[in-house]
Write a structure and sequence with these properties.
The complex is a heterotrimer. By secondary structure, chain A is an all-alpha fold. Helices cover 75% and strands 2% of the residues of chain A. In chain A, a hairpin with a 1-residue loop joins strand 2 and strand 3 (153-154). Classes of the chains: A mainly alpha, B alpha/beta, C mainly alpha.
């Protein structure tokens, strides 16, 4: 599909979502909103994984920083519940980016497995802080946000909040799309493909990777702010290893390097965890199965399926047909 | 005249019959449905506790044939995975999709704190059958008008236990408790009561929640203590007594009720014989009502009920009793709370009623682990024998409500360790 | 803080480190030879404990349970490697996700089979109680853990250094292309190493079960600790695993005893620092 076609498809899907969601049940609206928030997180990870080739096992840390910041500001300082909500959004992005800037100094030197390990360790550090720093984070109990912000519109209304989150999702998607299409984004892909060649060509690959890492952290922080208001509760459970692993799965399942793939993956994982679990008790088997089957049979993720179908069709076409197609396109 | 009288009477009679008929047919056709949303962990590390909780509730439901005073009960269980955000989401699903009239359950204090605001926001009843976080029915109660607790507060059993420790003659106690809010509250309650009657807590140790190797902590326990007070939760309860015994400890061990509750007791060994703890329930409570409960539960589920099961069983009983007075009609959240708060119950754990802050007032049992036969079972097993009963214990113990609430909630630093050396 | 305190704490730290060595040695071998990031390793540990329990319940013999559980899990590991991991080739991301998927499946299956109660593996009476030396109590089970680690470490070292099989394994670790070039069947080696790694993890589970207990969730609790050891010590190096587990065991112990506030930090922060400075760990090779 041409890139124009892809954009139109995405726009159509988003439009359909915007129009149809308010008619769904209250719980469904909640799940869709949740999937959108996690979709932002997944897209931020896709920048690292899909475009730069850096598999991070610690993306939940940035979600956590954004979420805890929001919760602490709301409960300890009574800040962020009116128009100041927008300031908190900005602060959430900044704290995510700042944390990534700090962590990146340690992490960017590593690649492959070591990058996985060090981001895992950094994520665990954030978890450890959330868990033990009782006075600030409430420790095991977490922090309760009593109400969603209100500034002319009431975010407490599920449908309203859905639209707000959808807005942020679209904004993030657009910004990240612009990023990956830019020369900077192209150089990230170049680093993913052949870092040595990029260095030979004179690119400061460390800096490129570092900037990508910081940007991913910023979007992670944004997701964190939205996450805090979604559940109304922040706890160390939000930053456990499993959350980061889930984010990875979302990207891989959807299709690394496609941006929207992450969002699609988010929808699938949320339906499994939070929808299927209300229907059957053996949903964990399905979740584990999805992990395993995705890896084994869907290397390009769900977004990669059309490509595979096309390739398989090309392979099974006879030589005469291929010649006919080639001459037809001239 | 008689003719007119007959006419009037006739009309009245007819009208009365009509009204009665309509009323009767209404109750006959409108078989009320009571939808109860039960939130507990069904997967993950706490899955077994969650099962025990729902088993307790379901056993009572079965006993009464699945309906409370004519209202057919629809009991929907949702998995919280022991994660507060998941509990919140499931609560939303139960309220919006299944249209439950009440949420019951929650396990951890963190879940209780997460569900309480949800109940306020969605204006739905939340019956907290297990979460023991003190402030839910203390300093934070104004925020949660639709919450009523049928279980306990963490410090409730600790207060009388502190007094018991003084009576026993202990003067210097070291506390070692899991480093989280529940631990702080159980230990805090004990410390406060113990120090009010002349005891001294000389050291407070806090191993992180989930500690498996107590090697770092045991050697630091002060040698001149009279007794050690422990509060362990989950797998920690299993390992700590063993490691303590292996390290050569000879001091008497006393502790919070969950350290020796029937959830972990079957997996424990002789190292816990003689350990004393306090809780609002012991499966070894030798009353006819409890004996029947234990025998029935064990026959059905293959294990002795823990307080997790009893609390939810009794909660079901309480809901039933309220519905009996409304003849099966759901009275609405606020009326339900008002009614429940005024009733008295004869539960498996003993007599229970409520204080004006929607928390139970009940017996607290000081129990000691012994190996013996009980209830006609022919094997020697570990039981928590009740050695003393404190009746009518509220969440405020002997401290007046206002005086109690003036002080901060029990935390790592409160009460301060005045006698720590 | 007298001498007795330091002695006991060191002993405790070393015994915890011994348990970690049993667990981490398998993980480091799997990574060293096959470059596989095995996030199911915690599940192998837990399964080992559960299977041992079943054997004990069925036969009453702890001594029998140990090898049976370890071998059973080794078979599971073998199957996983052959059927699922082999086709993936070297792709750390996919390995992570695949092994996590299996860990989730194993955890749910364990819950369904053995229930969710916290269980305890009771060792034979011989290993219970304590030895008293100079007024200090040394729990026998801790001594046993240290003993097991030493014996196992010695066996592994001997095999690696002194036998032909060991030489093949080391060759495969160092340079698998060259190893294939000289006729070593690296796929056979991989299979064997993965099975051995799973065997060791399960062994650690049986031994650890008597010390930590066996309960759902233990798999994901113990996993980051095992990784900390392997990363600090160096992936692929047995010596690294030994040194790393000692360091982690002692640091964790002393950290908790002296600085309880930052208990988890003392574990993961050093991991970050070492990864940043020397990503291959203290004894690892690239």
């Amino acid at each position: 599909m041409s890139s124009r076609g892809k954009i139109l498809t995405v726009m159509a899907a988003l439009l359909a979502l915007a129009v149809l969601t308010p008619f769904a049940s209250s719980y469904m609206i909640l799940l869709i909103t949740q999937a959108l928030v996690l979709g932002i997180l997944a897209m931020s990870l896709d920048i690292l994984l899909g475009f730069t080739g850096l598999p991070s096992l610690g993306q939940a840390a940035y979600l956590g920083m954004g979420a805890y910041l929001t919760a602490i500001l709301a409960t300890h300082y009574d800040f962020g519940l009116g128009w100041s909500f927008w300031v908190v959004i900005l602060l959430g992005i900044l704290i995510g980016a700042a944390t990534a800037a700090f962590f990146g100094l340690f992490a960017i030197r590593a690649t492959g497995v070591y990058f996985l390990m060090i981001t895992l360790a950094l994520g665990m550090c954030v978890w450890g802080l959330a868990y033990r720093w009782n006075s600030m984070t409430g420790g095991d109990n977490g922090i309760n946000l009593l109400a969603r912000p209100e500034f002319g519109i009431r975010l407490a209304d599920e449908v309203t909040y859905f639209y707000v989150v959808l807005g942020f999702f679209i904004a993030s998607l657009v910004m990240l799309y612009v990023l990956v299409k830019s020369p900077f984004g192209q150089s990230l892909v170049g680093i993913r493909e052949r870092e040595i060649r990029m260095r030979v060509l004179g690119y400061n690959t460390w800096l490129h990777k570092y900037i990508a890492f910081v940007i991913a952290g910023g979007f992670g922080g944004l997701a964190g702010v939205l996450w805090a208001h979604l559940s109304g509760h922040v706890s160390p459970q939000d930053v456990i290893l499993a959350t980061s692993v889930d984010a990875l799965l979302m990207v891989v399942l959807g299709g690394p390097g496609t941006l929207v793939g992450g969002a699609i993956g988010a929808f699938v994982v949320v339906s499994l965890r939070d929808y299927l679990s209300t229907v059957v008790p053996w949903w964990q088997y399905v979740l584990g199965g999805v992990y395993v089957l995705t890896i084994l049979y869907l290397p390009g993720g769900l977004m990669g399926i059309p490509e595979r179908i096309r390739r398989r069709r090309a392979l099974s076409r006879s030589p005469e047909e291929t010649k006919k197609l080639q001459s037809a396109s001239h | 005249m008689l003719h007119r009288l007959k006419g009037k009477l006739g009309w009245k009679l007819a009208a009365g019959c009509l009204a009665l008929g309509m009323g009767v047919s209404q109750t006959a056709t409108a078989a009320e449905e009571l939808r109860i949303g039960f939130i507990a962990p069904m997967t993950g590390g706490f899955a077994q506790v969650g099962k025990d909780m729902s088993n307790g509730f379901e056993m009572y439901l079965e006993e009464v044939g699945g309906s409370f005073a004519g209202a057919k009960v629809k009991f929907i269980v949702e998995d919280s995975e022991a994660k507060p955000p998941v509990a919140v989401r499931k609560a939303e699903k139960l309220v919006h999709q299944d249209k439950v009239q009440m949420l019951v359950g929650g396990l951890l204090a963190s879940t209780g704190y997460a569900l309480a605001p949800v109940s306020t926001r969605l204006k739905v009843l939340y019956v907290a059958s297990i979460p023991a976080a003190d402030d839910l029915t203390q300093r934070e109660i104004a925020k949660y008008p639709y919450v009523i607790r049928t279980g306990w507060t963490s410090s409730q059993p600790s207060h009388p236990f502190g007094e018991w420790a003084c009576e026993k003659g202990y003067k210097r106690v070291v506390t070692i408790g899991a480093d989280f809010a529940f631990g702080y509250e159980v230990v805090g309650g004990f410390q406060r009561a113990f120090e009010s009657c002349g005891g001294k807590v000389i050291q407070k140790i806090w191993p992180p929640l989930g500690t498996k190797d107590f090697g770092p902590y045991i050697p630091t326990i002060k040698k001149d203590a009279d007794a050690i007070f422990t509060l362990m939760a989950g797998p920690m309860s299993l390992q700590f007594p063993k490691q303590l015994a292996d390290a050569g400890n000879k001091k008497p061990i006393i502790g919070g009720g969950t350290s020796y509750d029937e959830f972990v007791l079957p997996s424990m060994g002789d190292e816990v014989i003689g350990h004393v703890s306090s809780l609002q329930y012991s499966a070894a409570l030798d009353t006819p009502k409890n004996a029947a409960f234990v025998k029935k539960y064990r026959a059905k589920y293959g294990k002795v009920p823990s307080y997790y099961s009893e609390s939810n069983y009794t909660t079901a009983q309480m809901i039933h009793e309220v519905l009996k007075t409304t003849k099966g009609k759901w009275p609405g959240t606020q009326k339900f709370i008002a009614m429940l708060s005024k009733m008295k119950f004869d539960a498996a754990r003993g007599p229970v009623h409520f204080d004006d802050m929607r928390n139970p007032v009940q017996n607290i049992y000081v129990k000691k682990v012994e190996r013996k036969k009980m209830f006609g079972y022919d094997k020697d097993e570990l039981w928590n024998t009740v050695i003393k009963t404190y009746p009518n214990v509220s969440q405020f113990w002997k401290y007046g409500k206002t005086e109690f609430l003036k002080q901060p909630v029990y935390s790592r630093e409160y009460p301060p360790c005045k006698y720590c050396e | 803080m007298n001498a007795q305190f330091w002695l006991i704490q060191s002993f405790n730290g070393i015994s915890y480190g011994a348990l970690l060595f049993l667990l981490a040695s398998g993980l480091t071998l799997i990574f060293g030879v096959m470059r596989i990031v095995n996030l199911s390793h915690g599940a192998y540990f837990l399964l080992g404990g559960y299977i041992a329990l079943s054997v004990i319940w069925a036969t009453g013999s702890w001594v029998l349970a140990v090898p049976v559980a370890a071998l059973a899990v080794a078979v599971v590991g073998l199957a996983m490697e052959r059927v699922f991991l082999r086709p993936l080739g070297f792709d750390p991301l996919r390995q992570v996700l695949l092994t996590v998927g299996f860990a989730i499946l194993f955890q749910q299956a364990a819950l369904d089979i053995w229930g969710g109660d916290s269980l305890d593996i009771t060792p034979p009476d011989l290993l219970r109680g304590s030895v008293v030396i100079g007024g200090i109590y040394f729990p026998v089970y801790r001594l046993f853990m240290i003993g097991m680690a030493v014996v196992l470490g010695a066996i592994l070292w001997l095999v690696m250094e002194k036998t032909r099989a060991g030489a093949m394994i080391r060759a495969a670790v160092d340079d698998s292309e060259m190893a294939r070039g000289v006729g070593i069947d690296t796929s056979r080696v991989s299979m064997f190493i993965f099975a051995l790694g799973a065997f060791l993890a399960a062994l650690a589970g049986v031994v650890g079960g008597g010390f930590l207990g066996i309960y759902p969730g233990l798999d994901f609790e113990i996993l980051p600790v095992a990784f900390a050891v392997v990363i600090i010590g160096g992936m692929g190096s047995l010596t690294g695993a030994a040194v790393g587990s000692l360091i982690v065991g002692l640091a964790d112990n002393f950290g908790k005893a002296l600085f309880p506030e930052v208990a988890y930090f003392t574990l993961y922060a050093p991991m970050v620092l070492i990864l940043a400075v020397k990503p291959t760990g203290l004894f690892g090779r690239e």
